[in-house]
Design a protein that fits this description.
Rossmann fold; 7 helices; alpha/beta; binds S-adenosylmethionine; 7 strands; about 210 residues
């Protein structure tokens, strides 16, 4: 999955995203934002903001910047901000693998359903860690494969890997492989959404012990 094909596939889905994927992803967005316990002073960055459907779950006074590489998804996000009169929320076109923010710029950095989609998850997580303040919070909601998942599911997901470019995401993505390079100092992992297929990962931006 290269950037061009990601942009192309989100151009295709942006028109119906909120009524389809957006509906499935909603409980995870809501739960993750409630776990964040955002304060008035928190500066939050959300990578891969998409159509901005998570924005309604943040407190009005919390300043959230959302970035995405898809101009079509961002167009929808801008409309959502205006339509729902969302305060302190903005969006920018940017690649999460090459953020233009300074080091240690944000208290909390979030990635919702983006780690399985981006071309280089290692670059994305490195950038999330770089722009997050030391001891700040990193949150992901994503489908990862865990040791405890059923064998049948793993076989199915591995079987789908050759068509991942067409699906637009990596069906088989072991968390252990991801965290071997991400080296997240994981505080909690909880399951969410239909069939508990996705996981919310909360990490502190400090070296894992
Ligand atoms: C499955 S959608 C999730 C959207 C949103 N986070 C949500 O919860 O509905 C994945 C989003 O990540 C974006 N994306 C993929 N790779 C990216 C990257 N490297 N940098 C920024 N955005 C990216 C896509 O354009 C798309 O909008």
């Amino acid at each position: 999955m290269d950037d061009k094909s990601i942009i192309k596939s989100y151009k295709r889905v942006s028109g119906f995203y909120d009524y389809t994927f957006g509906q499935i992803f909603r409980p995870g967005q809501k739960k993750l934002v409630s776990m964040m316990e955002c304060s008035k002073t928190d500066r939050v960055l959300e990578i891969g903001i998409g159509t901005g459907t998570s924005y309604k779950y943040y407190p009005e006074e919390t300043k959230v910047t959302g970035i995405d590489i898809s101009p079509d998804m961002l167009k929808k996000a801008k409309k959502n901000i205006i339509k729902h009169d969302l305060k302190n929320k903005n969006v920018l076109m940017m690649n999460g693998e090459q953020l233009t923010f300074e080091d240690n710029s944000f208290d909390k950095v979030v990635g919702m359903y983006v780690v399985s989609v981006t071309q280089n998850p290692d670059l994305l997580i490195n950038e999330m860690k770089r722009v997050c303040k030391p001891n700040g919070d990193i949150y992901l909601v994503n489908h990862f494969s865990f040791e405890t998942d059923s064998k049948f599911l793993k076989i199915l997901e591995k079987g789908l890997m050759p068509v991942s470019k067409y699906l637009g995401w990596r069906p088989y993505f072991p968390f252990s492989e991801f965290n071997a390079y991400a080296k997240l100092n994981v505080q909690s992992i909880s399951k969410v959404n239909i069939f508990d297929y996705w996981g919310i990962i909360h990490a502190i931006n400090s070296p894992a012990s």
